[in-house]
What does this fold into?
Amino acid sequence: MQHYDVGVLALRGDDHAKKSWQPTLDWLSTQIPGVYFDLHTYDFDELDDAFKHNQLDFLLTSPGQATRIAREYQLNWLATQKTPYSSNATHSIASVVVVHRDSPYFYLRDIKHANIAAVSEKAFGGFLAFRYELDKRRYFNADFYENIRFTGPPTDKLLYDVLEGDLDVAIVPACTLENMTKEGLINRTDVRVLERRNPYDSVCDVSTGVYPNWTFAKTERASNEIGKKVTQALLDMPADADAAFSAGNVGWTLPASPVSVDKVFKHLDIHPLQKSKQEMLYQWLENNKLIAFACVFVFVMMSIYHVWVEFHFNRSKRQLENTLFELQERNSMLEHAQRTMIVSELGSSIAHEINQPLSTIKNYSEGVIRRLDQGMSPEDLAPVLGKIQHQVTVASGIIQRLRGLIKQTPTDYVTCDPADFVRESIALIEYDFKAKNIHLDLSIDGVPQQGQFDIIGMQQVMLNLLRNAKDACLENTGCNHNPTVNVELLYGLNEVVIRVQDNGIGLAASVTEVKEPFYTTKDDGLGLGLPICREVIEAHKGHLIMQPTKPHGCEVTVIIPIQREEQE
It folds into this structure.
């Protein structure tokens, strides 16, 4: 007697598979004399291994498994079983998403963080159709599928785990739920099917589309002659045969088209005929060796060029940093030189400022001596000594301001009222204005407020602007000319404005020329005054504006932003 091995995918376990399919093999044996068919049950991996070792003559499995195997091995589809569960006799494979009746999940989109399990990632109706459905809807990313557990057969255990609360969601093949209910294994009302549908008037609830039924196929180990006999025997099986009843079908028909199954595999990028990206890369490299070599050569040369450019860039960067450091040092020296020049030009004003407290001290001292000669007690001299001490403090303050202005110190921002350095600058130069008969007036408007300022730098700015205004007034020798310099300090909402306006000869050059370093109209000038002023103001995030006034004169405006402190 001729012997043939038939492999069966046992989704619900070996015993259930033998009970369902052994009658079909017995039917074939009765229809084909002298032939015996031996049933072998497998899970997905075992079935792949059996094909790898050429151990089977025939195959009885799901369409997904048959399609995948047919793309790797010689496999002829003989017949597709007909289902009694829907109006489409050749389609009944689908995925069913089952939860407990008390589950909080009602839609597929709700199960993102659920505890989910399926039989195998290779199971078409038990997983792949489910993944295809979710992927079409773009519900979840790849991380979602990595958290799904694959328990292996039997499928029944998944539903038991849902009922016992060990599992939130079970993915099982179509009609598994109905068959277990019919067999008395579970109570149908204890579970729910998410997004239940019944395509083709199916009596089985499903959660996805339906695909072709199980297929009987022949491997290359069996002859074509026996394949024809098996096909004919299957097609001749009556709908009411015991073998059909055991397998849950109503006979067999010609093989259904696997196009819809191929579509699922292609969409999920797991079709057996699809090459991996690595394989495609190797094939391209094999077919385009010259281009690949050229690309590698260009890449190597670009890498070398990149290293060369980076080396020169870093060297240039270090050179620029050294140059910048030198420029900063020289700029600091120039600022110091310019401040020293200002102090030297204010010599007469400084001498007057110091002589005033010194003269007062001299007068008070002589008065003390006279009173001591007249026998006045030390207690009566205390007020006079206090006045002497006050004048010493005034003289000391003048000297300290001059030392701060001349000393080359790093920039130090302190909190102060801008009126302080404006008044101190005017005090240093006021005597010089009086000596030249130039009227100097200060007006302050707005609510006083404090800000962060470089006091020495701002004094240098004020002295530069006042000195330029004084020189402009002296050069204007017109008739009925009353030289005047007005200083305004305006407190705004978020800024302070310092404006110095004179009625001198006006701008002797264009605004553009005045902005250039080393440009000067004075015989002994360095041309650094306004550029240094502009640098100090910009360091305060402010700006300087120069414009002529009518009929003659010039107005310089300094605007510095200041953050007003909120008052409680």
